[in-house]
Specification:
The protein has about 325 residues and is of the alpha/beta class. The chain has 11 helices and 11 strands. Strand 2 and strand 3 form a beta hairpin.
């Protein structure tokens, strides 16, 4: 990346209180940047000195400046923010700032691909997002649905996923229908509760304005004035996927997310997500976003884990 020319970049910051958060405990934030970019970072009071390959020192400088601005806005800082800032600083074409607003937080795109995803969500009635865990596929889809609900642009937010990966065999699970399906829908509840107060979610669910249901419950319905999200779509069959997509009613948006490396269908059963991505790739009104391990925004180790598995599965 870049040339072999070495250089030194100097940065100076005004607020010493923010520097404590910027550097991190035992300067762990700076150490993470050093490790990711192979640069050397030293601090002298409120001055930061970065040494290393010319282009990499500039990326490190842009990263620290962006993180400092992040702190000035009153936001918290963690390792995912640092990795996101590193990606953005290294982009040849920086992505536009893209936000989704919920009751509990403003959610900003953390990579150029996330920004493209949010743009696709706002411009298309049907969007497919495929890629590894930790890229924000489901979280941003839920955030868009919540934002549209809060803005009064839709009446219902419907979240769905295959209830049991291999065939939705609910009868083998103990308890009533809610107890049977809740464990499989837990990630969707978690996303909702991260964006909305518990009492708001409870009220909306009681009114039927927020619905979390297994895919099997979609059969025979026409869903209008809604945002409908299908998560873990790699575990749908071709018949299930066609059934789901044809539920789309007037003034509605559908978002389909999944990871084609995590298919749990019986051996020999084609994935409905794979089939839909091929069948619908040229259909007007359909947006398709492909994430890679570079877009992972969870703990930085997750990105390295995904990459290791991809390397293992790629023939050499």
């Amino acid at each position: 990346m870049g040339s072999d020319k070495r250089s030194t970049t100097y940065l100076e910051f005004d607020d010493n209180n923010l520097l404590i958060e910027l550097f991190g405990s035992h300067e762990n934030n700076l150490k993470l940047i050093e490790k990711e970019l192979a640069v050397s970072i030293t601090t002298r009071g409120n001055q930061v000195v970065i040494q290393g390959e010319d282009e990499l020192t500039r990326i490190a400088g842009r990263t620290l400046a962006a993180l400092y601005s992040h702190l000035q806005d009153g936001k918290q800082l963690d390792s995912t923010d640092i990795m996101a800032a590193l990606r953005q600083a290294g982009d040849k074409e920086p992505h536009e700032e893209t936000y989704l607003t919920t009751k509990r937080r403003v959610i900003a795109a953390r990579s150029r691909m996330q920004a493209a995803y949010i743009k696709a969500l706002k411009e298309n009635e049907l969007v497919f997002a495929e890629g590894p865990a930790g890229t924000g596929k489901t979280y941003l889809a839920v955030a868009l649905g919540v934002e549209m609900m809060l803005n009064g642009r839709l009446d219902r937010l419907i979240l769905s996923r295959p209830a049991v990966e291999a065939g939705e065999r609910l009868g083998f699970l103990p308890g009533d229908i809610r107890e049977k399906v809740d464990p499989y829908l837990r990630p969707l509840y978690d996303a909702l509760h991260d964006m909305l107060p518990l009492e708001f979610v409870t009220k909306k669910m009681a009114l039927g304005e927020i619905e979390v249901a297994p895919l099997a419950f979609m059969r025979g319905r026409t869903l209008s004035d809604s945002v409908i999200i299908l998560d873990e779509a790699q575990n749908t069959t071709e018949v299930q996927m066609k059934m789901f997509l044809t539920r789309l009613g007037s003034n509605s948006h559908m978002i389909v997310t999944g990871d084609l490396t995590q298919i749990d269908l019986p051996k020999g059963t084609p994935s409905g997500l794979q089939d839909a991505l091929t069948t619908l790739k040229d259909v007007r009104g359909v947006g398709i976003i492909h994430f890679t391990e570079r877009d992972v925004v969870r703990h930085p180790l997750v990105s390295r884990i995904v990459r290791a598995y991809e390397n293992k599965e790629t023939p050499h």
